Write a sequence for this structure.
């Protein structure tokens, strides 16, 4: 035999490699998918009931593990593993091979559980896991509703006596507690921890003429005017009051607001006035808010006035 004859490639068909598809393998794969589906449903239920981190982790592991094992079993036992070599000149399948493939594809081999059940269980597992993974959206928190547009002062609307303004220790104050040129940070009564409620009350000088929007002169008590303390640029607390000029400065980016003209911005990046709080005095002589701020407090993404 010549060397050339030794180099000739062998063209023979090998036996099927890998284990043959069996009923038990089919059952195993379907069982894995069904267990995964149940674990994913369980994950959703546990989360909905308030959550339990360890249990959720276990459920997630079982769900993803079940799907993984099911896919591995499927791939190993039901996907073709045959290695076939043939002469290059003859790539086309014979009619017999085509018929065999079509039959195997459509009906499967040795199908006991049934491919439909197998596909159905896999689909159920993936669907259940996908649905369970949507649940954490709930953890983003409740819909804010009007919560970002109102403060605790909104309770004053239509309420006799309004909402008292209080110091940080929740003690109320009277107009005479604030000296001329004085500035004080106050809050709505019983809401001293609310992040959106810090308010500056400022006592202007009697010779300082206020130039406020129509109807807002009545929001001033004895020269005391109140504005939100949150800068309308990005929310820093304003607080540097230049009494002689009636200007409030924000230390973050130097926005400046004219207290005497409705806290309109006269310098810096802030584009919106500080919201004004309508003031009054209750029967006991304490300062009160008669309504909420004139517009939503804080950064100007609201970009609107009421
Ligand atoms: S936060 Fe006040 S100027 Fe930027």
């Amino acid at each position: 035999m010549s060397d050339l004859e030794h180099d000739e490639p062998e063209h023979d068909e090998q036996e099927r490699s890998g284990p043959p598809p069996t009923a038990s393998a089919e059952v195993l794969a379907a069982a894995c998918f069904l267990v995964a589906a149940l674990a994913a449903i369980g994950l959703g239920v546990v989360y909905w009931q308030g959550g339990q981190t360890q249990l959720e982790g276990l459920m997630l592991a079982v769900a993803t593990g079940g799907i993984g094992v099911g896919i591995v079993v499927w791939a190993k036992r039901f996907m073709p593993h045959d290695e076939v070599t043939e002469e290059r000149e003859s790539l086309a399948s014979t009619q017999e091979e085509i018929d065999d493939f079509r039959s195997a594809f459509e009906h499967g081999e040795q199908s006991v559980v049934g491919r439909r059940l197998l596909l159905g269980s896999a689909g159920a597992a993936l669907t259940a896991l996908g649905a369970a993974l949507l649940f954490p959206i709930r953890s983003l928190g409740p819909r804010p509703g009007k919560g970002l547009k109102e403060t605790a002062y909104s309770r004053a609307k239509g309420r006799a006596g309004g909402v008292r303004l209080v110091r940080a220790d929740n003690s109320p104050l009277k107009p005479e507690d604030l000296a001329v040129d004085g500035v004080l940070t106050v809050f709505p009564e019983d809401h001293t921890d609310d992040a959106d409620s810090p308010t500056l009350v400022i006592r202007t000088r009697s010779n300082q003429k206020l130039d406020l929007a129509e109807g807002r002169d009545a929001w001033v008590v004895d020269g005391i005017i109140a504005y939100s303390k949150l800068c309308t640029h990005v929310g820093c607390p304003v607080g540097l009051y230049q009494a002689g000029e009636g200007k409030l400065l924000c230390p973050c980016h130097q926005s400046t607001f004219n207290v005497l003209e409705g806290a309109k911005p006269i310098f810096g990046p802030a584009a919106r006035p500080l919201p004004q709080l309508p003031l009054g005095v209750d029967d006991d002589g304490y300062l009160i808010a008669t309504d909420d701020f004139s517009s939503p407090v804080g950064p100007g993404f609201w970009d609107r006035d009421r």
